[in-house]
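As described in the Methods, two query proteins were run sequentially through the folding procedure within a single session, without resetting any intermediate state between them. The first query and its resulting structure tokens are shown here.
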Amino acid sequence: MPGLQSERTTLHRLPERGSHDREVIDPILDEAYLCHLGFTQDGQPFVIPTIHARVGDVLYVHGSAASRAMRTAKVGIPVCVTVTLLDGLVLARSAFHHSMNYRSVIVLGTAIEVTDPAEKAAALDAIVDHVLAGRASDARPGNDKERKATTVLRIPLTEASAKVRTGGPKDDPEDMALPVWAGVVPLRVVAGAPERDPKCAVPAPRYLTKER
């Protein structure tokens, strides 16, 4: 896979933590449930949380057709999409060196509204399956009214960078002997047991009950 480095995505601070390789970027985009879509309207920056899905070399985001983000971005403006996975709290001996272990991606590009019905339907299915694989084929597909009320944006994966921090605290040598606990508190997202809608008599599908 080609890298996604450009002048705008070149990493300047702690570049040793960064990557422009798809082998690093794609898994982070695929694992994250939530992204933030950044754009500017009349000189005012906005950052909106939404759900995304990567399909090959394209990132799709969606939202209500009436929302500010979709109405502004669909005309083809520069946007910034970010995702972050938090892997741990890094506790150092000094307050200054406290940190977090994380994996993050920034995608830059021009958002274009998806108007082709087939591509839009496929993108919406991909977004549903991004949340829970197998769900799109199980649930009722969107109807014309619902699709009309939803805007899907396509952002090509041509400019992106990833940044990853791993490992323990990086204390100064003179602080190493301080009587302060130091280390990492690992963090991860864990799915709980499915909670059935009281009005639902359908058994839980396998993609909910299998070990994940």
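Immediately afterward, the second query was submitted; its sequence and tokens are:
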Amino acid sequence: MSCVVVVPARMASTRFPGKPLCDLCGKPMIQWVVEAAESSGIADRVLVATPDEEIAFACRIFGAQVVLTRNDHATGTDRITEVAESFDAEIYVNVQGDEPLIRPETIRTCAEPLLNDSAIQMGSVYGICSDADLANPAVVKVVTDLNSFALYFSRHPIPYPRNEPAGEYKKHVGIYAYRRETLRAFAGWPVSPLERAESLEQLRFLEHGVSVKMSRGTETELAVDTPEQAVEVRRILEGRQVN
């Protein structure tokens, strides 16, 4: 079964312009993501999807395959949908370009349910929330049914423990696997009410009846949204290299 990993990346960022090219231990951030995707063992090819020539140039230097996309996409999923029109595959995996700490096994874990079961239309990954994560609206939480399909994603702690402690809270890891037809459907749907309320594009799939299989993975220590976070990620990567 053919599988393409797509890494969407763009120079525009409110808090950290140009972050995909931020130097992390001698490599641009985007290179760390591409190399993790290549090491996952599930991809027939890894593509960087970007509207920016600067990113395309940097990626070609380290040997990545690049697809130049439009600059008007509202979401990373829309960018991947454009890629899917030119590169035919059965499964597409969305790995964000600001996740230089992502583990290859997490990428593999996301895609495996679709590789193993043709009835599954979409997959994603969760970890376990820390106490600090629970109160942080930037950390997305997910609740699942008894078969590990997502019931809801929220920036608020869910479920609310009215009668008894909820146990472990699940932290959503923002990586997705989709079938081609699921991506095409997404592109034709308008922004949905819950998606607009929470500012979470994955809710558009749930609101249109797409089941999202959640698999237990290894959450990344930190994504990069600010220059300060890049400094911390650099420290973590240096520690990995020493170990």
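The first strand starts at residue 3 and ends at 8. We note this only descriptively and draw no conclusion about the first query from it.
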